[in-house]
Description:
The structure is a homotetramer.
Chain A: E1 4-9, E2 13-19, E3 25-32, H1 40-54, E4 62-67, E5 70-71, E6 78-80, H2 91-99, E7 102-107, H3 108-118, E8 128-133, E9 137-143, E10 146-148, H4 184-194, H5 202-205, H6 215-223, H7 227-251, E11 256-259, H8 267-280, E12 292-294, H9 301-312
Amino acid sequence: xxxxxxxxxxxxxxxxxxxxxxxxxxxxxxxxxxxxxxxxxxxxxxxxxxxxxxxxxxxxxxxxxxxxxxxxxxxxxxxxxxxxxxxxxxxxxxxxxxxxxxxxxxxxxxxxxxxxxxxxxxxxxxxxxxxxxxxxxxxxxxxxxxxxxxxxxxxxxxxxxxxxxxxxxxxxxxxxxxxxxxxxxxxxxxxxxxxxxxxxxxxxxxxxxxxxxxxxxxxxxxxxxxxxxxxxxxxxxxxxxxxxxxxxxxxxxxxxxxxxxxxxxxxxxxxxxxxxxxxxxxxxxxxxxxxxxxxxxxxxxxxxxxxxxxxxxxxxxxxxx
Amino acid sequence: xxxxxxxxxxxxxxxxxxxxxxxxxxxxxxxxxxxxxxxxxxxxxxxxxxxxxxxxxxxxxxxxxxxxxxxxxxxxxxxxxxxxxxxxxxxxxxxxxxxxxxxxxxxxxxxxxxxxxxxxxxxxxxxxxxxxxxxxxxxxxxxxxxxxxxxxxxxxxxxxxxxxxxxxxxxxxxxxxxxxxxxxxxxxxxxxxxxxxxxxxxxxxxxxxxxxxxxxxxxxxxxxxxxxxxxxxxxxxxxxxxxxxxxxxxxxxxxxxxxxxxxxxxxxxxxxxxxxxxxxxxxxxxxxxxxxxxxxxxxxxxxxxxxxxxxxxxxxxxxxx
Amino acid sequence: xxxxxxxxxxxxxxxxxxxxxxxxxxxxxxxxxxxxxxxxxxxxxxxxxxxxxxxxxxxxxxxxxxxxxxxxxxxxxxxxxxxxxxxxxxxxxxxxxxxxxxxxxxxxxxxxxxxxxxxxxxxxxxxxxxxxxxxxxxxxxxxxxxxxxxxxxxxxxxxxxxxxxxxxxxxxxxxxxxxxxxxxxxxxxxxxxxxxxxxxxxxxxxxxxxxxxxxxxxxxxxxxxxxxxxxxxxxxxxxxxxxxxxxxxxxxxxxxxxxxxxxxxxxxxxxxxxxxxxxxxxxxxxxxxxxxxxxxxxxxxxxxxxxxxxxxxxxxxxxxx
Amino acid sequence: xxxxxxxxxxxxxxxxxxxxxxxxxxxxxxxxxxxxxxxxxxxxxxxxxxxxxxxxxxxxxxxxxxxxxxxxxxxxxxxxxxxxxxxxxxxxxxxxxxxxxxxxxxxxxxxxxxxxxxxxxxxxxxxxxxxxxxxxxxxxxxxxxxxxxxxxxxxxxxxxxxxxxxxxxxxxxxxxxxxxxxxxxxxxxxxxxxxxxxxxxxxxxxxxxxxxxxxxxxxxxxxxxxxxxxxxxxxxxxxxxxxxxxxxxxxxxxxxxxxxxxxxxxxxxxxxxxxxxxxxxxxxxxxxxxxxxxxxxxxxxxxxxxxxxxxxxxxxxxxxx
Lengths: 321, 321, 321, 321
């Protein structure tokens, strides 16, 4: 038995949770950070304070950090993270000292994939593909029961697979990236383009200003039966299925798990995705198309997975194997 | 020490080889089979005769079969193979009895990936992506030193990843599959479309009949400096790089190996592929783009890999681990 | 008053008709020709014999020829026609002598556009766009009441406008041409790709052989409610609308007329086309989307138009103005 | 003889010129207007003041107005113009009274096409296609010596022809419009995407802020040999040629004229366009590809064309015929 804390460190928030050996989230605290311009000190102070609070002042056995960035092979440093202030510092050592606990550090999507495979929708499956739809697309691959991080720790960058040559321009400087067609941003863009021309409750929700339109507005309007909002989910869902068909052709996972904020829409998103997957997957008539299910752990998947990696690292290895 | 034989069983030929513990191919024999309409008996007779000949009449420790089709999880049966007569029979048992030797059976691209990882271009790499360009695109993924077969043994179906929505129609009934743009068939199709309009030596090589044009003609003409043939390789190479960028984004392998008949063109194919990969891969400026190298083992990779799997299966496990 | 005969000269048939001043077709005869390898003599003999028969042995005032090829500016010669034996001979003079009548010669799609504008679906409209869906896509533009032939007589080659970059390969050697997505061939290709996998009466109609599948089979099956056949029309119709939106953006015609063999399916084709046109046309909310109607004159439109051009040429000008 | 004034009325400027019977621009004045929120009164006051000044206080025979918007069939009202304050008022009557002169009103691209056909690059040609590359793509068609305005005055909306299905999102709410790939905006977008990753003088020119990057900066940098800027012109030029091939296939003009701000780059833009046109145009090997030439009249084409239409309207008809 031990006291395990997982922490999800994003660009504007720190989310810390006390996690039981069973993966259960016992309690959590959420802190906002001032965003992109924050210093490493402020982020680390916020982490220490959140961990201390969630642990109720008790000593902690180990802390797992899920960071929205690329982590080096040793698991000590964040080497590249557009929304975090770290640029290669030895975060693990610094925080280990300040927290007086063992610290493990990994990419947030990797942590979420590990959590879903261990405690969530993929429990008992030997392989799965996790795709998370937020502003963009992230995710992870679990193969033979372990997260595949890639040779440089960069596996799972699904959002920038090209699905349309000469397609929509992406912030990455390329064109036609999958996340331009299937993500929270794609949902909003679809709806925005119809604001002036199609009748929709979204015009009121955003007070006539397309710039104010958000993903949750589209989700709410779809729930209420708004046709434009439902069309947005159908479009995003179809493209989800098209892209998943490519990943299934390459990896043949036993299960596909869809998480992230957009996935709260459930079958409104997943049904068109299943249809498109069945239509787009080669040999779908000679094989079982892997089940496409919603993530089970919600927005806490990252911190739960980080805590689980911390538990697993007891014996020195970073991975539970 | 043992006597290991690998056999590559394709739609129109059986290629058997005696393979040393070091992976060296000691000798080989090639037999043609009458093609698609052949019976299982004829194929099995051909295998037995080829194995007996290549073994010089001596007893054989184990035989590895690399089959151009999907093999079931137990490794005993070919469940689906468009160009082979087997439809689920227990091939492994039957041939084991007839050959009086242990027999292992696996998909040919899986065998080739195993061979390149063990003895070929990927020796010593913990992960690699093998892509083979023949009539279509096949391949395999090696992760943590082992071939990843997928949950249903169907991983590595790269050729049917969609790269162009509404693109070129594919024999699989879908549109825009990668192998319509990057394969031996794509090479020939590119050249055919220019036969009437651009000056090219290919017009003579195919005696004015576009139907007679073959991949090796295009390869030879490119070697001689023919501009249409070179254009074909540039086009196929670029699309190779574009598709590889998607696989690298998802999977982040340490190495990319390109095999298959088209790859004999070497840098004529690989240079445009490297350029396109560098341009298309997300974050190429923040990471090392994995090296893109030609396969080392040539058309014998499949049988060498099958023999290696047979060696590795000594202790009961199908995989050397 | 006069006796006017129109003749439609295609790759495998000659269709001649006696046409009243009102455009009414009084009677017609059809002759098969032996196809691509036929000589100019055979085609001209067939024309003379068909004209003589349809005229009932009476003298003819003028004959209009609608040819499936490009006609030079003087209206005397067919300069390029893949399916006809003429390569620049002075057809008009030769036939004028043999028929002892004035002869005018024009492209068949131009003739059909003229006929639809004068006697058919576009009567009274100052401008229209005719699109004919047969094996490929042909058509014509009527502007200010006259067919626009183009500077080199090559206007109206709509079928080879590119609608999908890197799209389906076309016989013309390019990719993504409109007629690969919206034509009789596209209809058949759509259905063929589903023969093995979706339940459809087409499997019986073609006796299990995809090569035997024809457009009329798909039309008949759609009529009977077959889902694959209906899907084929929906797909071809949508692409029709997408391409038409481009032409309307450029030309802003008062009317769109759809003819050719595929158009016998009526609203099964035109409804999805109208929907796609409304969705794809820029400023559709600030303008009237031009009506999309079926051609009125059927397969005789070409010969009727040729006869009408012959009438109009009375005073020397080839065009009624 | 008469005194003719042409006025180009755009979203942020009024450009008036005194034009000789020969089309020569004798003198011009330019006035800025406060932009989108300006009232109709302010715009009309500016027009009156500019006309008066350019006419040197002398009486004027007729004034031609080239407006950046759709003009109704009677030529009296601007019915839709995103950047102008008019919404259907009888502008022609009001200005005719205030200026004490005959006034004609037409769309600015129509005026420019008329000017190029009458006095510019297309003098003596019976047909031409004018494409202007500014922020977007505009243009006009000249047939039989007259501008084709379309049934509703909306012909020439080339910028929103779809060239990439599922392509780059456009302000019009659709995707893949031509002007997203070939225009001043496309030039800037291409360059912006490379600012962080490729070495380019543009980084300095825009002081490190991609939002400050403008088309003229890209033009200047290309002139200086900057590779990113030259790549931008090559890309925009190629897409120009691809789209032109579609228009030539449909319309077969004798000449293509390219105008607008981007066209000042000359062959840097036009050479890749010519190449792509030759490659993309169906039957290019059996026809003459129409010459692709720069516009001759520069930014004054609109006002010169408006003045020419005013001259031509002497006898009552709006068009010189």
